[in-house]
Amino acid sequence: MSNKWEDAIHSLSQVTVMSNPNNEPVTIFGGDDSLRCVGVGTDAAVFQSVYSPEYAFKLYAEDKIAKIKIEEKVYSLIGESPFFSTCFAANDKYLVLSYEEGITLYDCLLQGVHIPEQVVRDVEEAREYVRQKGLNPRDIHLKNILLQDGRAKIIDVSEYVQPGNDFRWEHLKKGYDEHYHLIDGKSVPFWLLETIRKWYNQWNKHFASYEEFMKGVLKFTSFKK
Fold this sequence. Notes:
Elements: H1 9-12, E1 15-18, E2 27-30, E3 35-40, E4 44-49, E5 52-60, H2 66-78, E6 87-90, E7 94-98, E8 103-104, H3 105-111, H4 117-132, E9 145-148, E10 151-154, H5 168-179, H6 190-201, H7 203-206, H8 210-220
């Protein structure tokens, strides 16, 4: 690819991304009709430009811009991998990444799209690959994994330099193995997914263990074994 992504610079300069408290998604201000928001996280928002649709531009909130260089370094260490995006450039406001087709696993649950076991195997393989590069695969959750032609693509690597295990993937995999059959092919309401997400972010304050948390979720929902 050439530097065709530079055609989007003017439009990107008109966008401001602001973070919010309590680990809530960022708020976006400005922009024009040439940009399409394709993803929103707690630190950044991702845009696609009509001038260079093969790229994704990850714009960070003003108080999170220190993460740009960190994420750029992580991508350089990962190198070429079928499980991750490619990083082409970075500046003081955003990363330029390869645009990846597909929907997040979060949207799969919303729409009742089947999530094949191959996706789980791909994430396991991707995590091992990352460890071999001296990185620590963290913060892997429903909104950070795309379903792409039946395979997994992980789209956020910003926390891979942090120590420790947040157990997000382990809990997600356990939930898939033990409970996914209850909702496979069914559309899960947005309000329910958001309630479970918020509960999970604070589960250790209200439940003695992850298993107790899942019992609470199953009681709250109509899902039955």
